[in-house]
Write a structure and sequence with these properties.
The complex is a heterodimer of chains A (about 170) and B (about 110). With about 170 residues, chain A is mostly helical. Chain A has two domains: about 120 residues, NADH-ubiquinone/plastoquinone oxidoreductase chain 6, subunit NuoJ (Four Helix Bundle (Hemerythrin (Met), subunit A), Up-down Bundle), CATH 1.20.120; about 40 residues. In chain A, about 75% of the residues lie in helices and about 0% in strands. Chain A has six helices and no strands. The longest helix of chain A is centred in the middle third of the chain and has 25 residues. Chain A is globular. Chain B is an all-alpha fold. Chain B is built from four helices and no strands. In chain B, about 75% of the residues lie in helices and about 0% in strands. Chain B has one domain: Helix Hairpins. Classes of the chains: A mainly alpha (about 170), B mainly alpha (about 110).
Amino acid sequence: MMFTKYIFFFLSILALYSALMVLMSRKPIHSVLYLTLTFFAIAGHYVLLNAQFLAVVHVIVYAGAIMVLFLFTVMLLNLNKEEVSPKPVWIKIVVIIAGGTLMIVMIGIFRGYDVALKEDPFLTQIGLVKNLGRVLYKDYLLPFELSSILFLTAMVGAVLLGKKEQI
Amino acid sequence: MNSINASLQFVPISYYLFFCTVLFCIGVTGVLIKRNALLILMSVELMINSINLLLAAFSTYLNDPAGQIFVFFIMVVAAAEVAIGLAIIVVIYRTTHSIDIDILNKLKW
């Protein structure tokens, strides 16, 4: 019975540890690799939530496409060196205090919150491709088509920005 | 399948809330603490991911597919954002030979 909780805690600790290592590792390429690990842990969370479609899309889009873009940029521009002028220590301390305060306040808000479950959450079938696709193509068809236009625009913009000669 | 699912039960939604809050705050701290534009973009990705996971969790717990559709669209926008952002970083690197954001203060004053 405790199986899910163990998986949940394992994935959470993995994700949080690698998210912290994204910030703490000195070289950008290590940060990119730790971020990939975080994304895989989050994909595990999606599987745990019975959202298979999102898990697969997450792995393809984030771990596949976005992290390859990041790695490509780091390696192509030879950016893999430490920060030339890191921020002074007192700014880091202030930032960590600010982030910690935000975290404490938000956890204080969310403490004790619970939803009234209609049924067992891990038995729902809404995350399956069949059901999600039906909703996507029936109720959300226009946003879906608009997102393809957004992609086309982003692609044209990226190509235009990446061109060598002056625009 | 049913027996497997029956043993997969009862992670309270507040656990997801706490986990996603901590992940989001790590992202916020990263945006504030780093000077490297690439790492700032990566911290933004962390924040987007924590929000995505929370949306999917609530969608599952409330048995409403709209949350997962919304996660899908957020992923679309995040992918477009990363493509444009990295293109801008490449252009910045070409003009200033650095991606330190403190150099880019010409529009600030």
